[in-house]
Write a structure and sequence with these properties.
The protein has a 5-stranded mixed sheet with strand order 2-1-5-3-4, with helices on both faces. The protein has helices at about 25-35, 90-100, 110-120, 125-135, 145-180, and strands at about 5-10, 15-20, 55, 60, 75. The radius of gyration is 19 Å and the shape is globular. The longest helix is centred in the C-terminal third of the chain and has 36 residues, at about 145-180. With about 180 residues, it is of the alpha+beta class. Bound molecules: FE2/S2 (inorganic) cluster (2 copies). One FE2/S2 (inorganic) cluster (FES) binds near residues 43, 47, 50 and 64.
Length: about 180
């Protein structure tokens, strides 16, 4: 007897996708095989390593522990969705590169999605908080020291960027007001 299939509509990295899957299709497999978003990596496939982590409505979630059908109606962000559409890297991506937070890179998509969600909640973490935030993700290469440094550096980059935005807005306003005089 052939397996029953379900048509699902997923919103991934801001774009709508429609695909047809069996009810038991894992979200990780759906992202990689049905949608071609292979940035999400699969390591253990049972919730231990964190390599498959994506954001569901902004919260980190192991996509190997979720069925694709359950993700319908939620906003999914994969590692492919962290950089801006113009290619500008997300602060966590820049910081991982700057601080050598990766070697083989297999674990990196999970660390990036976890760290990006964490910094939304806690933009100025202590080292201890950064360490705790990434504590559920496994890396076989780096020994975590540079990953923790990268999370703290990403926090600095984010704060610098948000301080620059009001300044730029203020400068633009001053220019506009000056133009009317
Ligand atoms: S592949 Fe999902 S937690 Fe390891
Ligand atoms: S960089 Fe290789 S597993 Fe983390």
């Amino acid at each position: 007897m052939s397996e029953e299939l379900h048509e699902i509509r997923l919103r991934v990295n801001g774009a709508p996708h429609t695909t047809t899957v069996p009810a038991r299709r894992l979200l990780s497999d759906c992202l990689r095989h049905d949608l071609g978003l292979t940035g999400t990596h699969v390591g253990c496939e049972h919730g231990v390593c964190g390599a498959c982590t994506v954001q569901i409505d902004g919260r980190p979630m192991r996509s190997c522990l979720m069925f694709a059908v359950s993700a319908q109606g939620h906003d999914i962000t994969t590692v492919e969705g962290l950089a801006r559409p113009d290619g500008d890297l997300h602060p966590v991506q820049r910081a991982f590169r700057e601080c050598h937070g990766l070697q083989c890179g297999f674990c990196t998509p999970g660390f990036l999605t976890v760290a990006a969600a964490f910094l939304e909640d806690n933009p100025d973490p202590t080292e201890e908080e950064a360490r705790e935030a990434i504590g559920g993700n496994l890396c076989r290469c780096t020994g975590y020291v540079n990953i923790v440094k990268a999370v703290l550096r990403a926090a600095e980059l984010r704060r610098a960027a948000s301080a620059a935005v009001p300044e730029q807005a203020g400068a633009a306003r001053a220019r506009a007001e000056g133009g009317h005089r």
